[in-house]
Amino acid sequence: TPPTNDGGTNDSGTNGTRANGSELVRFDKVTKRFGGTTVLDRLDFSVSTGKHVTLIGPSGSGKTTILRLLMTLVRPDEGTIRVDGDYLTHEERGGQLVKAGDRHVREVRKKIGMVFQHFNLFPNMKVLRNVTEAPVHVLGLDKDEAEQRGRELIELVGLTEQLDKYPSQLSGGQQQRVAIARALAMRPQVLLLDEVTSALDPELVAGVLDVLRDIATTTDITMLVVTHEMNFARDISDAVLMFDQGRIVESGSPDKMFSDPEHDRTREFLSTVL
Ligand code: ADP
Questions:
Q1: Measured between alpha carbons, how far is 53 from 219 in angstroms, rounded to an integer?
Q2: Which of the residues 51, 165, 183, 218 has the least number of beta carbons within 10 Å of its own beta carbon?
């Protein structure tokens, strides 16, 4: 069934100007199944522009699948996903919404940046080139401009001294900070962070979280975060969504969620991670 355009809202926008407090990410009745298992069950949620939303919940509850849907690494079985008013899952052809083609998906996905658990840097490129490669080759940015911006981002993640090193010469924490700079270099409107510290040695975690706190407070980028670092979640989140078995069981401000959760499932989960 084709999705309906809710409430007659015109999503097309003009020159990137959107209504204040607009929804940058919106899932409508998104269902994802793997084999016979329903991993996400008619999921509705949205993230407003500039907000930081954290997804928490037990392993297997569907959190990573949400980020992978946004990166179009997987496609939903049902429902629609919109980013900045544009459908990621669908496109308009002859006045009708049809399943999005690859080209349309590539365009909408440019609005999204992601940092993975395993940083996946280009091993044969130095730090600066890791950050400038995609802006030059995908966005078509002028090389000097990309380098200037790259240096700024590398400074933001505290790696100016490492500019000329290869990934193998860096610690895991430093590599992850390069991955953060690389994602930001594409000027995404929303940054997805998937367990970005869980592959790091414990002593390297704080440095990466400090950089992310800094980005959360000094930039206006929208963030969608999956993490088991509850103190970090509490610090940076505007809202926390608690998942269980592919559904949101509870959502609210970090203070409410961490100090006074409503649901047994949330209390149970928090008692295992706090
Ligand atoms: P979380 O991030 O909350 O740990 P995931 O979104 O990774 O949860 O996974 C949700 C469920 O979907 C799990 O049961 C997982 O095994 C299953 N799953 C995820 N990706 C795939 C896949 N590509 N094929 C089959 N099952 C998958």
A1: 15
A2: 218
